[in-house]
Amino acid sequence: MSNFLNLNNRDFWRGAVVAILAAVVGYLQTSLVSGSLPTADEWWGISKLAGSAALSYLLKNLFTNSSGEMFRKEG
User: Fold this and answer.
1) Is 2 in contact with 63 (CB distance < 8 Å)?
2) What global pTM score does this model have?
């Protein structure tokens, strides 16, 4: 884990994995509900979901110290 208020490459790679998984889940959910492939508008929604998931993950890591404690500086 990175230090409090810092991000490292591992954080960005894990954020990318979270984004990809969010997009896959969004795609599957849209396809299963509608019974067809997502439309262009639905892809836009799926990509916003993926971006939100990645940003949330990075913000969580930004405010977490290397011990996994949120909103606490390094001990």
Assistant:
1) no
2) 0.83
State pLDDT tens for residues 42-53: 899 999 999 999
User: What confidence tier does 15 reach under pLDDT thresholds 50, 70, 90?
Assistant: very high
Amino acid sitting at position 68: G
Question: What amino acid is encoded at 16 in this protein?
Answer: A
What are the phi and psi torsion angles at 37 (to 5°)?
A: -70, 150
Q: Could you write out the DSSP letters of every residue in the chain?
A: -PPTT---HHHHHHHHHHHHHHHHHHHHHHHHHHSS---HHHHHHHHHHHHHHHHHHHHHHHTB-TTS-BT----
CA distance 55 to 29: 21
